[in-house]
């Protein structure tokens, strides 16, 4: 007579449902590390995908060489951003602050200043100043946390991909284990499905980022903005964040635009970014996402809205993959299988 434990192991649908709940519980407990977890996964997926792509064209090139060259290029890009883009942005910010200060001290603003000072309570100004300082401190802390998570993710993904074959061989030992073999088989089952769906959406967002960057660089070139390629790099990186990335790029572009052409350029940039944001939200995002995931445009919009509400910015990135993954798991709609050689789990 079978025991309850044996019946549980043989009931594959119920067993996988329990394993899925267990995975969700573990991820919820690790929510403080979610930036590092997701970024590590993204970096690892991209590098593994690049390895498979290069080895299809050049089979004799070792994966180690591809990984080392890739991360050297990443470090070179970070060096370019730190040494070229950030100083340029800092210079533009200082120029903008100086221009605003000189405009504030000008004769045409003296009457307005007295009028505002007369009607605005000083205690309210102090409270608003404190609130603004707290927001700035929170933003600085968030940027610092994300920076640390990014560097940790790069390190972890490097060590994973540099020993990709060894990692896969070692991971397969869990599936061949004795007592908990069924558990690791189910984890691998869900892992393969999520990698497949996430890869499809990541490719879609990559194409969207290219379109956004091309449109933005054309507009900036017409406006004769400086450092077009540096600004294009920034827009491309931010565009990898669906919907929100284009809006975030408005802040540094407005600062640089103000120092180049004054408030007139700020208005131009605002109009350009709003138009590009509308194109992404109403054309590119539904088109690419729905074509890659084969979801109706309505469901794509709905998932993005709900995921952003519950998960914030990360919800815009992983919302559609999670929804597609769940559809695949419950057999509502299967995702087209990618080449097995592109899998992170079973790569050779």
From TrEMBL:
Keyword entries, A-Z: Membrane, Transmembrane, Transmembrane helix
Protein topology in the membrane: Multi-pass membrane protein
Cell compartments where the protein resides: Membrane
Main subcellular localisation: membrane
InterPro entries, per database record: AI-2E-like (IPR002549)
Keyword Membrane attributed: yes
Residue ranges crossing the lipid bilayer per the database entry: 12-28, 65-86, 135-160, 198-223, 229-253, 265-285, 297-330
The keyword Transmembrane helix appears for this protein: yes
Origin: domain of life: Bacteria
Similarity annotation: Belongs to the autoinducer-2 exporter (AI-2E) (TC 2.A.86) family.
Name of the protein described by the UniProt record: Permease
Organism taxonomic ancestry: Bacteria, Bacillati, Bacillota, Bacilli, Lactobacillales
């Amino acid at each position: 007579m079978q025991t309850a434990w044996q019946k549980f192991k043989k009931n594959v649908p119920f067993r996988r449902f329990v394993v899925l709940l267990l995975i969700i519980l573990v991820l919820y407990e690790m929510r403080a590390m979610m930036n590092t977890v997701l970024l590590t996964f993204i970096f690892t997926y991209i590098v593994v995908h690049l390895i498979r792509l290069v080895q299809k064209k050049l089979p004799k090139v070792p994966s180690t060489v591809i990984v080392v060259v890739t991360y050297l290029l990443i470090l070179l890009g970070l060096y370019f951003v730190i040494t070229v883009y950030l100083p340029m942005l800092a210079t533009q910010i200082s120029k903008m602050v100086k221009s605003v200060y000189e405009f504030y001290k000008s004769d045409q603003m003296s009457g307005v200043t007295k009028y505002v000072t007369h009607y605005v309570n000083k205690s309210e100004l102090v409270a608003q100043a404190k609130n603004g300082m707290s927001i700035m401190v929170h933003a600085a802390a968030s940027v610092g946390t994300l920076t640390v998570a990014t560097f940790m993710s790069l390190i972890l993904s490097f060590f994973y991909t540099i020993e990709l074959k060894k990692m896969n061989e070692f991971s397969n030992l869990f599936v061949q284990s004795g007592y908990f073999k069924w558990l690791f088989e189910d984890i691998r089952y869900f892992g393969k499905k999520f990698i497949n769906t996430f890869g499809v959406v990541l490719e879609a967002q990559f194409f969207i980022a290219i379109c956004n960057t091309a449109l933005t660089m054309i507009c900036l070139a017409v406006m004769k903005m400086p450092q077009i390629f540096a600004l294009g790099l920034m827009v491309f990186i931010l565009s990898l964040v669906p919907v929100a990335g284009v809006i975030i790029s408005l802040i540094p572009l407005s600062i640089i635009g103000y120092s180049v052409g004054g408030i007139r350029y700020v208005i131009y940039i605002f109009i350009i970014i709003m138009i590009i944001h509308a194109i992404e939200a109403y054309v590119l995002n539904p088109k690419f996402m729905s074509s890659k995931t084969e979801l109706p445009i309505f469901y794509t919009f709905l998932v993005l809205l709900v995921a952003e509400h519950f998960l914030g910015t990360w919800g815009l990135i992983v919302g559609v993959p999670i929804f597609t993954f769940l559809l695949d798991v419950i057999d509502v709609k299967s995702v087209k299988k990618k080449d097995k050689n592109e899998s992170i789990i079973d790569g050779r």
